[in-house]
Structure formats: structure tokens, C-alpha cells
Amino acid sequence: MILDGRKTAQQLKLGIAEEVANLPGEKRPHLVAVLIGEDGASQTYVKNKKIACDKVGFHSTVIKLPENTSEIAILQKIKELNQDPHINGIIVQLPLPKHLNASLITQSIGPEKDVDGFHTESLGKMILNQQTFLPATPFGIVKLIEAYDIPTRGKHAVILGRSNIVGRPLSVLLSSNNKYGNATVSLCHSKTENVTNFTKQADILIAALGIPKFVKDEMIKPGATVIDVGITRVADDTPKGYTLQGDVDFENVQNKASYITPVPGGVGPMTILGLLTNTLQAFKKQNQIH
Ligand code: GUN
């Protein structure tokens, strides 16, 4: 069965839109996305985030800066955004051009506006199971698992990829003692020996390593839930010049899995939902709305 991220995100967005429509007063949540350079995929992601904001009734602003913008100028811009009371959430789209220190830049966003959940304060609170902004992709994945009532308690979740924005925070959420957690988690990475030994045991397999079609049917347990976070542009002779490919060989794995996410239309829309949820939360907290 397909885990339809597009449909699930759509339904949950209706709930956000309704909450926005019922907010007291005239103020609405305002998200600012900072986009640096000309990366085509990043431009698409930011555009989709803006469209999603508009749909649920948020204000949104995209600040586009040239590739060669200095670190000082970006830090100055973020400082202004941190101090602006009309702005509730700030994100800097990753990856950044090579001359910029992504850690320094993401850590300069005020924790109360860190709707990507990348700040050390947000990540620290997440580990301690305190209320905070959860990183958008792991947040979206657990929401998708919840929406389809897929059991996690006592199950073996195997994550491929240890990135700071997906694999590592997701390992915390799935292992934590809460409604979408209580799984036993294996976090595999490029140095893992015999990765198939792990993937074959997975009740829930999450692929977030960025290698197109890495996961094949012989690597999975029959009836597993397979969640594909990969979204690589593979060049070809289609009119666009590329096709989006996930980390899972969908055609090959589809019949052996009980649940599987497509690419596109799986995790991507859920990531945006996570961002919208965090932005609404930031707005409410900053305006003392409970
Ligand atoms: N690049 C890939 N995923 C993300 C994300 O969730 N947020 C930001 N800001 N950049 C990303």
C-alpha cells in the first residue's frame, strides 16, 4: 500500500488553515525563507514552501541573496529578522554555497524562530523529550507513520543515513517514549558493515542516504514499511533534463513491502507540513495564544 504523503499533508494542512482562520485579531504567522545562490533544487523547495504558506493563510517572504554573499552580510540579515516582531519563523535553505559555514548560520537564528529545528537548543530539547520545534523531515515522517496507524512500539526501525537533519534526529524520535516512538532503532551509515543484515530485520526501514535506488527487494523483510527520504535529480533526456529518484528501487520493492512511500509525493509534502506546524507553533508562542 502506498503511503500517500501528498494526501496526508493536504488533510493536515486543512487543520492548520482552519486554525489560522480562527486566530484572534489580524496578525497571521509569517515565515521568512533565506535562499542563497542558484541551486535549482533549493529554488524549487523554497517555492513549494512559499506556496504552502499562502495556502494555509500564512504570510511568507523569500529573501534571495547572490551566491557570493558574505557570511557577515547573512549574519547581519538574520540578526535583523530575529529582532523583527512581525516575523515568527526563519529558515535558511540548505545546502549553502561552499564558502559559507552552515552551522554558524543556522545557529544564528533565534531559537524561538528556529522553525527548521536545527538549533542546538531545539535539538537538545528534542533529546530530552521537551516541547520544541522538531526538524521538519523527521517530524513529517512520524506524522505520516501516525496517520497510517503503523505500529512503532517494540518494532525494529532501521535508518540508513546519519545526517544532522534527517537520520540522527529521526533516531531520537523513533526511540523516544511517546506515541510515535518506542521503537528499537538501528542507525546505519557509510561505515556500517553488512548493511543488509540490518535492513532485512527492519519492520520499518527509512532510507535517507541520497543514493538513488539503493534499497532492493532482497534487502527488505516481507511486509516491512519502507520510507524513502531520497530525492536525487538524475540527469536524463526528458524535457526537464532530469528525473527525481528516491533511495528505494520502488518498482522492485513495492510488492514485498506492506507500506511504501513514493518519490515524489511521499516524504516531501510531509516535510513542508512539519515546517507549517512549527511556524504556527512559533506564532502562537510569540503571541501568547494557547
Ligand atoms: N535542505 C534539505 N532539507 C532541508 C530542510 O528541512 N530545511 C532547510 N532549511 N534546508 C533543507
Task: Describe, in plain words, how this protein is organized in 3D.
This protein is α/β, with parallel strands linked by helices. It folds into two domains: 23-110, Leucine Dehydrogenase, chain A, domain 1 (Rossmann fold, 3-Layer(aba) Sandwich), CATH 3.40.50.10860; 136-268, 3-Layer(aba) Sandwich (Rossmann fold), CATH 3.40.50.720. Helices cover 38% and strands 16% of the residues. The protein is built from ten helices and ten strands. It has helices at 5-21, 40-56, 71-83, 102-107, 120-127, 136-147, 167-175, 195-199, 250-253, 267-286, and strands at residues 30-36, 59-65, 89-92, 156-160, 184-188, 204-207, 225-228, 232-235, 242-245, 259-260. The strands form three sheets. A five-stranded parallel β-sheet has the order 5-4-6-7-10. It has a three-stranded parallel β-sheet with strand order 2-1-3, with helices on both faces. A two-stranded antiparallel sheet has the order 8-9. Strand 1 (30-36), helix 2 and strand 2 form a beta-alpha-beta unit. The radius of gyration is 19 Å and the shape is globular. Guanine (GUN) binds next to strand 3 and helix 6.
